[in-house]
Amino acid sequence: MDLHTSIIELIDLRSFSNLWFWIMLALLWSSASHWVLGIPYDLVLRARRRGGQHEVDLADMVRINVGRLLYISRVSGLAMLSFGCFILSSLAVVGFYYRYEFAQAVFLILFPMSIIGLLSLSTARALEVEDLTRETLYKRLARHRIYVQLIGMLSIFITSLWGMYQNFQLSPLN
């Protein structure tokens, strides 16, 4: 086996049969469920259990990250939404109409992540409007994390079903 063949096999664009795609997908959803609104969930648990300075740190991080998300959405939200819809619709057409597997894989990653982005924006707006008590904050962040995990499980399930279907279609046994 020469160097050229090794490189081509390493950078294989047949995503659903590539181990690196599945590792990246698992890491992506693992980190998405750990970082709730940009706040590590272990900080939320620590603040709930120990209180004191951990609660102050959590409140500060929530205030900073909520303000950051809302500022970005107010300044460039419409442009980001337009660009995101363009990218997602382009990936969907190229992937599913023209049957390009790499575009399918990227779409199956980016579409659920865009839903997570909208959910994060909704949670940030709710946290800005609500009168934040400690328990309200903990419940809101825990609920957001559960929604992210549910979307992640559904996304991984659909992606794995579609990946198996694609691999069966390209199988030499067909």
From TrEMBL:
<keyword id="KW-1133">Transmembrane helix</keyword>
<feature type="transmembrane region" description="Helical">
    <location>
        <begin position="78"/>
        <end position="98"/>
    </location>
</feature>
<feature type="transmembrane region" description="Helical">
    <location>
        <begin position="104"/>
        <end position="127"/>
    </location>
</feature>
<keyword id="KW-0472">Membrane</keyword>
<keyword id="KW-0812">Transmembrane</keyword>
<feature type="transmembrane region" description="Helical">
    <location>
        <begin position="147"/>
        <end position="165"/>
    </location>
</feature>
<protein>
    <submittedName>
        <fullName>Component of SufBCD complex</fullName>
    </submittedName>
</protein>
<feature type="transmembrane region" description="Helical">
    <location>
        <begin position="20"/>
        <end position="41"/>
    </location>
</feature>
